[in-house]
Amino acid sequence: MALNLFLEEKKPLHYSKILAVFIFTVGVQFCCFAKVFASFCVSPLASVVTHSQLKTMLSNRDIQLFDVRNPDEHQAGRILEAVNIPLGTLEESLQLSPELFQQKFEVKAPQKDDDNIVFHCVKGNRSLKALDIAHRLGFSRARHYKGGYTEWVEKEGK
């Protein structure tokens, strides 16, 4: 488009103008790429809760633990304090008003600046997807238990 403006003026093209347009275009594309890339690049270490950290958070009662497995999986075995919000309904659930969230799940609704929100599933795959959903919705300090229920059972028993 910028090149067309030069052509419409019917002036001789100067390489410096072409170079400036090229640099501007590449710069804009790079900035767009950087923003998109940054949205996916939450520090993996900062977003992961280890088994030891999870145990500490649970013993201090300083956690909002959400099990994103299906209800049948949750019923078959669970971390006692976990609230079941299946991954397929997570986005909608996190957008509920605090009153409706509490009514539906019988716990206080998480707030976007809470640093004690943790998602878990069986092995960490769905909880990582849940983390992405939460981050996109503004829950930037949410984390996930990478080891999942499988690791929990291995270390804690059922």
Task: Please describe what this structure looks like.
The chain is an alpha/beta fold and 158 residues long. The protein folds into 2 domains: 2-40; 44-156, Oxidized Rhodanese, domain 1. It has helices spanning 2-8, 15-40, 44-47, 51-59, 71-76, 87-94, 98-105, 125-136, 148-156, and strands at residues 48-49, 64-67, 83-84, 117-120, 143-145. The chain has a 5-stranded parallel sheet with strand order 1-5-4-2-3. β2, α5 (71-76) and β3 (83-84) form a beta-alpha-beta unit.
Which features characterize this protein?
globular; single chain; transmembrane; Oxidized Rhodanese, domain 1; Thiosulfate sulfurtransferase/rhodanese-like domain-containing protein 1; Rhodanese-like_dom; 158 residues; membrane; 9% strand; five-stranded parallel beta sheet; 9 helices; alpha/beta; transmembrane helix
Number of contiguous helices: 9
Q: What amount of the residues lies in strands? A: 5-15%
Q: Mean pLDDT across all residues, rounded?
A: 83
Q: How many domains make up the 3D coordinates?
A: 2
Which series of helices and strands comes N to C?
HHHEHEHEHHEHEH
Helix content: 55-70%
The total of beta strands comes to 5
CATH architecture of the largest domain: 3-Layer(aba) Sandwich
Class derived from helix and strand content: alpha/beta
In the CATH scheme, the class of the largest domain would be Alpha Beta
Which residue ranges are poorly predicted, with pLDDT under 50 across at least 5 consecutive positions? 31-43
Note the main sheet.
5 strands, parallel
Q: CATH H level of the largest domain: which superfamily?
A: Rhodanese-like domain
Order of adjacent strands in the largest pleated sheet: 1-5-4-2-3
The global form is globular
**CATH T-level topology of the largest domain:** Oxidized Rhodanese, domain 1
The Cα radius of gyration reads 23 Å
Amino-to-carboxy terminus distance = 64 Å
